[in-house]
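Team,

Forwarding the record for the chain on the shared tracking sheet. I've put the sequence and predicted structure together so nobody has to dig through attachments.
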Amino acid sequence: MLDDVYKETQAKMNKTTEATKGEMAAIRTGRASSAILDHVTVEYYGSQLPINQAATISVPEPRLILIQPWDKSVLPAIEKAILKSSLGLNPSNDGNVIRLPIPTLTEERRKELDKVVKRKAEDGRVSIRNIRRDTNELLKKMEQDKDISEDDLKHGKEKIQKLTDEAASQIDKILAAKEKELLEF
């Protein structure tokens, strides 16, 4: 019974760290990454699709993203979607592919992005702590209902704290990697 609680808690915490990692990947740094286009959608035959479902996205150079649509008629729509997005990038359409040069970041922009990634990391940590709180409340209720003993409650809280510390550590590693990426020129 307790093992199920631990597994479920760990699964929720893993999901939270993965979500934080995904949010961090979508933040544009001075280096090209196809992940920055994950939230950009394009109108494709009457429906909104992520760009990666309408084209092949590759990163041939550290500061260039290449978008090659499967259907050339969608090139203008992809170009328009990128221009409308909040990425601040200028696509170059040559009739076959879209080249997306990634400019280097200004010092001011780096500082802004650093604040954003720190905020996202803190949001992840808060989510982890909320999961811990909810699980601890569940354990207390189980103890009150005489489903587990007082010792089980104590050991359970210790194990949940250990899981929390591990998940928070993972988020700290994700943050450190993103900050390092932001500082690269």
